[in-house]
From TrEMBL:
PROSITE patterns: IF4E (PS00813). Belongs to the eukaryotic initiation factor 4E family. This is Eukaryotic translation initiation factor 4ea. It comes from Cyprinodon variegatus. Keywords: Initiation factor, Protein biosynthesis, RNA-binding, Translation regulation.
Length: 217
């Protein structure tokens, strides 16, 4: 990154605006004035549990962004997950995909689920969620399987918080196992701790409290 010293600016040709702009382009790196684009445009959603309304009516779009700078501006402006009331969610999804089972891109999909103990809200919740978001942004991490990623969800719950990455096709074993392996590694989950992948269809129709795993990592 180069900066213009006062000396340089005064020595620029005073008569030509074009020349001035050209000189400026030479000395100021684009890094300084161009925001860093993300591979996708993302939408952040918020869910607040109001029992008088339907599940879908409780879901609100907060904002969309497609640069690193706009993400941090938003992230620094909103509450940390650990400060939210129980029953709330954040969902971060690629623009055009609604954060619900019913969306065309989620209908046949599922999620890698991280379940946290109550104690982990203090120690792990916020950093796991941020790491989940940054993992989704980094295209090269999921390599060829990036298109399978739909988004990520955090559920703040009294019984234990949950974080998940949602993918589009529960039959795409290759993509799912790759994403699961990378995700587990990124969070620093010890190898002996098993995480599970469940289809939304199973989650939506489950009768007991546990949905069966289609895959584990
Ligand atoms: P939840 O908020 O995902 O988990 O689902 P929670 O609160 O920990 O509950 P548990 O059942 O996993 O223990 C709670 C309820 O919200 C579901 O049973 C559905 O009624 C509703 N719900 C959740 N999701 C993600 C959806 C969705 O995508 N579409 C619809 N229509 N309802 C949903």
């Amino acid at each position: 990154i180069y900066f213009i010293s006062p000396k340089q600016t005064t020595s620029l040709p005073a008569n030509s605006e074009k020349n001035y702009e050209k000189s400026l382009q030479k000395v100021v790196s684009p890094e300084v004035y161009i925001k860093h684009p993300l591979q996708n445009r993302w939408a952040l959603w918020f869910f607040k549990n109001d029992k008088s309304k339907t599940w879908q009516a409780n879901l609100r779009l907060i904002s969309k962004f497609d640069t690193v700078e706009d993400f941090w501006a938003l992230y620094n402006h909103i509450q940390l997950s650990s400060n939210l009331m129980s029953g709330c969610d954040y969902s971060l999804f690629k623009d055009g995909i609604e954060p619900m089972w019913e969306d065309e891109r989620n209908r046949r999909g599922g999620r890698w689920l991280i379940t946290l103990s109550k104690q982990q809200r203090k120690t792990d919740l916020d950093r796991f969620w941020l790491e989940t978001i940054l993992t989704c942004f980094q295209k090269e991490l999921f390599s060829n399987y990036n298109d399978d990623v739909c988004g990520a969800v955090i559920n703040v719950r009294a019984k234990g918080d949950k974080i998940a990455i949602w993918t589009t096709d529960f039959e795409n074993k290759e993509a799912i196992t790759h994403i699961g392996r990378v995700y587990k590694e990124r969070l620093g989950v010890p190898p002996k701790v098993i995480i599970g992948y469940q289809s939304h269809a199973d989650t939506a129709t489950k009768s007991g409290s546990n949905t069966k795993n289609k895959f584990v990592a």
